[in-house]
Recover the amino acids of this structure.
């Protein structure tokens, strides 16, 4: 399947690979079975969030499944809420305003034409 989006880790080392999103649904969390896993980061929930693409419309959404919340563009996503993702959105799995060195954040980019 062609990748329809990618996640670029903010503050990553130069050359750290970005994550290409190919499957219809991506899971992110601390659990080992997640597509994007952070097994050693206690600030990331076991099942933190899901990123899903609607194959018909090309619309991409993020659903929060965490205990601690997910932040998009510094706005907290309400627990269990789904919100649309657009190119340029920054997804924070860990957002510490006063301890930015603990932040875990990714820049989302759409690779599909449908989204514009």
């Amino acid at each position: 399947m062609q990748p329809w989006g990618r996640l670029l880790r903010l503050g990553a080392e130069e050359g750290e690979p970005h994550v290409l999103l190919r499957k219809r649904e991506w899971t992110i969390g601390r659990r080992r079975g997640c597509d994007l896993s952070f097994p050693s980061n206690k600030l990331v929930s076991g099942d933190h969030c899901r990123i899903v693409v609607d194959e018909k419309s090309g619309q991409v959404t993020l659903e929060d499944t965490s205990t601690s919340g997910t932040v998009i563009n510094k706005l907290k996503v309400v627990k269990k809420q789904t919100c649309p993702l657009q190119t340029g959105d920054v997804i924070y799995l860990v957002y510490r305003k006063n301890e930015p060195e603990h932040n875990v954040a990714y820049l989302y980019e759409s690779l599909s034409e449908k989204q514009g």
